[in-house]
Specification:
7 helices; Four Helix Bundle (Hemerythrin (Met), subunit A); globular; mainly alpha; single chain
């Protein structure tokens, strides 16, 4: 659907008077951009003698960021399909998975502050910001779909999980920005 389409097509349809794509799909796409930036930083770091001692860890980060990038792209499309199916559980699961994966993705930023190519350090901070904002966007889509389900027990469990993940994400993003700011300002 959108995975292999142009950015223009996606944004035109996001802006159009269409029920989907919407916020859930946009959240996943935003997260895909964050994961892609992490991959870019690693790709510009690997092979540089200065960072050779981190090569194994950097390759692990790259494997994870690329896996996340592909999954976020899948979720970009899956959210549209879930909305079109009008199945409330599917409409909930897609942004919930996006939120969960954002929490995994942002964890990749912290080691890159110290082990990534310093010339791309601002991109590490941008990746963190994108992943945090994607989490927030996915969270709002989860909330609206929880309301439609009318299941108090499930609602409480999901809200509790997302509240905890939100706090962790915020802390990682703040720590990443602080460290990146110090490096940039010298």
């Amino acid at each position: 659907m959108y995975r292999d389409a142009s950015l223009k097509k996606y944004l035109d349809e996001l802006a159009a008077r269409l029920p989907a794509p919407g916020g859930g799909s946009a959240a996943a796409f935003n997260a895909a951009m964050g994961a892609a930036l992490i991959s870019m930083v690693v790709n510009f770091t690997l092979g540089k003698p200065k960072y050779a001692k981190y090569e194994k860890e950097l390759n692990d980060i790259l494997d994870k960021s690329e896996s996340l990038r592909h999954e976020f792209l899948r979720l970009t499309d899956l959210d549209v399909l879930a909305y079109q199916s009008k199945n409330a559980r599917d409409a909930l699961n897609t942004p919930f998975m996006t939120a969960r994966l954002c929490a995994e993705g942002i964890k990749l930023c912290e080691p890159l502050v110290e082990k990534g190519n310093v010339n791309l350090i601002s991109d590490v901070a941008v990746a963190g910001v994108l992943l945090e904002s994607a989490f927030s966007a996915a969270y709002f889509n989860v909330e609206i779909n929880l309301k439609a389900l009318n299941d108090k027990k499930l609602t409480q469990a999901i809200r509790k999980e997302l509240l905890q993940k939100g706090k962790i994400i915020k802390k990682i993003r703040e720590n990443t920005e602080e460290k990146v700011g110090k490096i940039i300002r010298g």
